[in-house]
Design a protein that fits this description.
It contains two helices and 28 strands. With 415 residues, the protein is mainly beta. It has a five-stranded antiparallel β-sheet, with no helix packed on it. Strands 1-2-3-4 form a four-stranded antiparallel β-sheet, with no helix packed on it. The longest helix is centred in the N-terminal third of the chain and has 24 residues.
Length: 415
C-alpha cells in the first residue's frame, strides 16, 4: 500500500468518532404518544360473533377469554352480562357457533373441550342448548366427532343447521394446519364440509348437501323447507373462489339446482368473480348475495345481486354503486339492511325499493363520515338528493348523520 493510500485510510478512521455523535443527534426523538396508543390497543378485545334474539331483548356474543373463545349473554343494551358455558371448569373449553331459538330464550352453541395440536385425531364438538333465563346447566343435544360451524336455527325450532365435517382433524379453513398428505393427492383423506341438520328432540344428524360438493355458506328459506348455499367441488381449501350458488329442498339426498355460476359468461358483470352471503328474501321468492373480486373467504365486498329462487335471470341490484357492501340482511321483501364501506368509513345503510319507477334507494343510517345536506323532520333525518327528491331515514344507531346513494333497480318479480 502506498503512503498516500495509508494516510487517507488513517484520516477516515480518525473521523469516525467525530461523525458518530452528529449521526445520533440527527435521529428524531420518539413520540411518547406512540407508546400510549400501543398500550391502549393492547386493551382492545375482539368480538368474534354476535347474535340478537328474535324478540330483540337479548344479545349474545363470542369473545376471547382465558385464551379461548367464550360466550356471553346480556340485555340488548349490554347490561347484566353473564357467561354461558357447558365447561366443568371455566375457561377449559372453546365455545362458539351461537344461534338463538325462535322462543328468544334458548341459545344453541358449539363446545370443544378437546384440542389435538397434531391435527391427526378426529375433533370432538358437542352441541348444547342453554336456557338464558334459567339457572340450569346447558343441555347437550349431540356429541360429534366432527367440526361444526355457523349454526342457524330453523323457524320452527325443531332443527338446527350448521356446516359439518365428519371426522375432521382440523378446522375448515385454508389457513388451518393440516395433517401430512398420505396417498393420492386431493383424493385420499379429503375432508368434506356439508350443510347438516340436527333434530333437537332426538339428536340425530343428517347431511343435507350432496356428497360431491364442499359447502361454504348457507341460509334456510323462511319456511325452513329449502336451502340456499355456496359450494364447489373439492378440495374445499382451494376452490372457494369458483364456488357456485345452489338451491335444494332441505332433505338428505335431495337434488341440487345451480342458480348462479360465476364462470358462466351469462352471469354478466359477475363473470369471473366470487360470491358470498346467500340470503333468502322474507317471502322466499328470491336469493340475494354479494358478488365481487374477493381475495379469500371472509374478505367480502362487491355488488348486491339477486336471483329468483326457482331459477331465472340474475340481476345486479347495485350497478355503479360508489360504496362497497360487505354484509346484508333482508328486512322486508322490498328492503335490506346493509353494512358497507365508503372511502374507508363503515356505514350501516337501509336499502329500500321505491315503488315509483321501481328504483332502490340506499340511505346510510350510521357512519363516521361528513353528512350531506340534511334537515330534521319530526325526529327523523330528511336527506335531500336534489331539489326535486327527498328521502327520510330513521336512525337506528349512532349520531344523526346520513347520506344517500342511488343503487340501481330491483327487478319486477312475477309469481
Amino acid at each position: 500500500m502506498s503512503k498516500r493510500a495509508l494516510l487517507s485510510a488513517s484520516l477516515c478512521l480518525l473521523a469516525l468518532p467525530a461523525l458518530a455523535p452528529a449521526g445520533v443527534a440527527a435521529t428524531a426523538p420518539v413520540d411518547p404518544r406512540i407508546e400510549q396508543v400501543l398500550t391502549e390497543l393492547g386493551k382492545a378485545q375482539s368480538i368474534q360473533a354476535t347474535a340478537i334474539s328474535p324478540d330483540g331483548r337479548q344479545l349474545a356474543w363470542v369473545i376471547r377469554r382465558d385464551g379461548k373463545p367464550a360466550i356471553e349473554v346480556a340485555d340488548a343494551d349490554g347490561r347484566h352480562a353473564r357467561r354461558v358455558s357447558a365447561a366443568a371448569t371455566p375457561g377449559s373449553c372453546a365455545e362458539s357457533g351461537i344461534a338463538w331459538a325462535p322462543d328468544s330464550r334458548h341459545l344453541a352453541f358449539v363446545s370443544n373441550c378437546n384440542v389435538d395440536l397434531t391435527s391427526t385425531q378426529a375433533m370432538r364438538n358437542d352441541i348444547y342448548l342453554a336456557d338464558t333465563r334459567g339457572s340450569a346447566a346447558p343441555a347437550r343435544l349431540a356429541a360429534l366427532q366432527a367440526t361444526c360451524a355457523r349454526c342457524s336455527g330453523r323457524h320452527d325450532g325443531k332443527s338446527l343447521g350448521f356446516l359439518y365435517v365428519a371426522g375432521a382433524t382440523r378446522h375448515a379453513s385454508a389457513d388451518a394446519a393440516a395433517k401430512p398428505a398420505v396417498g393420492e393427492i386431493d383424493v385420499t383423506g379429503v375432508e368434506m364440509q356439508h350443510v347438516a341438520s340436527l333434530d333437537v328432540a332426538s339428536g340425530a344428524v343428517h347431511e343435507l348437501t350432496p356428497a360431491a360438493l364442499y359447502a361454504y355458506e348457507f341460509d334456510w328459506s323462511p319456511d325452513g323447507t329449502r336451502l340456499a348455499y355456496t359450494a364447489a367441488k373439492p378440495p374445499g381449501d382451494d376452490n372457494w373462489s369458483i364456488a357456485k350458488l345452489y338451491m335444494q329442498p332441505a332433505q338428505p339426498g335431495a337434488d341440487a339446482t345451480v342458480l348462479v355460476d360465476p364462470a358462466d359468461t351469462a352471469s354478466g358483470s359477475l363473470h369471473g368473480l366470487q360470491i358470498a352471503l346467500p340470503r333468502w328474501s322474507p317471502d322466499g321468492s328470491r336469493i340475494a348475495f354479494i358478488g365481487g373480486l374477493m381475495s379469500d373467504q371472509g374478505s367480502t365486498g362487491g355488488d348486491i345481486y339477486a336471483v329468483p329462487a326457482g331459477g331465472g335471470a340474475l340481476v345486479d341490484l347495485t350497478p355503479g354503486i360508489k360504496v362497497t357492501p360487505s354484509w346484508l340482511r333482508w328486512t322486508s321483501p322490498r328492503s335490506m339492511l346493509v353494512s358497507q364501506v365508503s372511502n374507508g368509513q363503515s356505514q350501516l345503510a337501509d336499502y329500500r325499493r321505491r315503488r315509483r319507477a321501481g328504483a332502490a334507494a340506499a340511505r346510510a343510517l350510521h357512519h363516521a363520515g361528513q353528512p350531506r345536506r340534511r334537515q330534521r323532520v319530526d325526529g327523523d333525518v330528511a336527506v335531500r338528493r336534489s331539489q326535486a327528491h327527498r328521502l327520510r331515514a330513521k336512525l337506528v344507531c349512532g349520531r344523526r348523520r346520513s347520506a344517500r346513494r342511488h343503487v340501481g333497480r330491483y327487478p319486477r318479480h312475477r309469481q
